[in-house]
Amino acid sequence: MRKIEGYDIQYDFSGFRKMADLITFDGPLLSHYVSPKGDDYLFYWVDRDSQNNRWLVLRVSLASLQKYIGKKITLLELIETPNDGYLYSVDVDNDIHYHNIKLVQPSAIPEDYLPEADSYYEFEPVPAEDARELMTYELTIPYNERTRFEEILHKIGFPVSALKKVVTQAAIF
Question: Is 112 in contact with 12 (CB distance < 8 Å)?
Fold first, then answer.
C-alpha cells in the first residue's frame, strides 16, 4: 500500500453504523456510516494488501451527501473539501479491526487514491440490512401547498405534529 503522510491518532470507528453501500463492485467501494453521535461519514476504499483494506474516511454534512447523491457535486469534491478540513486514512483487517489510523490533509492523499474529476454519483444505494428502518426519503412540497398536504396527512391518520418535529430539524437548501 502507498505511504500516506499524516498524524498517527487513536480513533474508535467500531461504534459506527453502516447505513448503505453507495458504490459496490465485488464488495463495497463507498459506504455511508453514521457515528454514535449521529454524524454522517463516507468510507471510500482505496487500496489493499494481504492483511488490510485501506479506506479514506471523511465526515460529511447531510446537505453535501444529498448533493453528491443528487449529482450536483462529485466524490472528488467531497474528498478535497471535507467538513473538518481533514480526513482519516484507516486500515481495516479481515476481523474488522482498525489499524494505522492517520489524520490526513486532502493534499497529502496520493493521486492514484483519488476518484476522477467527473466522479458524479451514478448508482443506487444499497441499504444495510440493519439500517433499513432508519432510511429517510426526501419530499419536496411547494410552500403554497403545505396546508393541503397537511390536510391529506390528517385524513389518512398520519400524525402531522410528528412531521412538524422532523421538518423543523431538516436541512434547508
Answer: no
Quote the CA–CA distance of 66 and 138 in Å, as a whole number: 9
* DSSP output for 53-122: EEEEEEEE-HHHHHHHHTTSS-HHHHHHS-TTS-EEEEEEETT--EEEEEEE-GGGS-GGGSPPTT----
Reported as type and span, the H/E element at residue 154 is helix 146-155
User: What's the CA gap between 119 and 126, in Å, rounded?
Assistant: 19
What is the per-residue pLDDT for 169? 46
Q: What is the pLDDT of residues 107-160, one digit of tens each?
A: 999 999 999 999 999 887 777 766 555 545 556 677 777 777 777 766 666 666
Q: b or e along 106-140 (b: 16 or more beta carbons within 10 Å of the residue's beta carbon)?
A: beebeeebbbeeebbbeeebeebeeeeeeeeeeee
pTM here?
0.74
CA distance 40 to 65: 8
